[in-house]
Amino acid sequence: QVQLVESGGGLVQAGGSLRLSCAASGRTFSSYAMAWFRQAPEKERDFVAAISWSGDPTNYADSVKGRFTVSRDNAKNMVYLQMNSLKPEDTAVYFCAATIYSHRTYPTGYDYWGQGTQVTVSS
Q1: CB neighbours of 36 closer than 8 A, spacing ≥ 6?
Q2: Predicted confidence (pLDDT) per residue in 12-33, tens digit
Q3: C-alpha 100 chain-centroid distance
């Protein structure tokens, strides 16, 4: 069982940066592949980035490649999403997710979810 709590969202101007954090409970955190998804109002939940249990490899949606970086610190049970050069279309609720299997790019591939954190990018 893993419990996930996201933080770090907020309001930022286009071109700005934010770093999201995901705190995980459980002593087996390092066994889980982790991912970030996002969901805008009235839209489906979309894959953003994923990271394997060891930190390598990582995987990104085309829309965020070169702007976002996912990382993890297994000693602290933390996963991060550094978001640079933010655009208004990045506005969404961002969710952290965990799976015992290899990382996937679809929501149904994940067993545990956080409650989400709102990111709003103004133009």
Answers
A1: 20, 22, 48, 49, 50, 70, 79, 81, 94, 95, 96, 97
A2: 999 999 999 999 998 788 899 9
A3: 16
